[in-house]
Specification:
Elements (H helix, E strand, L loop, with lengths): L1 E6 L6 H12 L2 E4 H10 L3 H10 L7 H14 L5 E5 L5 H13 L6 E6 L2 H15 L7 H15 L1 H7 L4 E5 L4 H12 L4
Helix pairs in contact: 1-9, 2-3, 4-5, 6-7
The protein binds adenosine monophosphate.
Length: 191
Amino acid sequence: MIHLILFGPPGSGKGTQAEKLIKKYNLFHISTGDLFRAETSRKTPLGLKALEYMSQGMLVPDEITIGMLKNKLSELNHVSGIIYDGFPRTIAQAEALDKLLAGEEEEIRVLVALEVPDDEIVSRILKRGATSGRSDDNDESIIRKRMEEYRQKTSEVFNYYDRFGKSRTINGLGTIDEIFDRICAELDQHI
Ligand code: AMP
């Protein structure tokens, strides 16, 4: 089974690219942000807890996030591979994921990081906010907080997988199709 991590700061295009990649490579898409939003809109206890953090642009605590991911993975069967989008976002999450996969004699094959400059990120997210209905996309101070969380807690996940020679960087600027082609060129070496 193929396990791929689509990595990068908020607004770098992970969700958009994941939607295209799952079709081309016949993979299952797991976005922890989408899972949290689904819980939030159903007003489950998990969703309401997560919302306390999401609405402030902060990461949801690892314990909650890892628990939710484990549940999701246990529901899946007969998928040929998974794209993780927005997970892992901390070293603890990466270690938990690796441990979980190792238990199934599986492992992360590659992490593809989309690189996009900060100013571009803010303008992309604000633009998305006009139609996404996401309150965390509409407030520049929350967007900046999400970027800070990324820098402080998430960016080191790249180095974590780089130690195993699994991290790759992709230029995240250009049209959706240009970026998609770059990602595919990289993935084709691993799939
Ligand atoms: P996203 O849709 O990936 O931008 O995520 C939206 C929000 O959900 C983030 O700002 C976090 O509050 C929360 N979130 C999503 N994935 C994670 C994760 N792996 N760890 C912690 N918080 C997360």
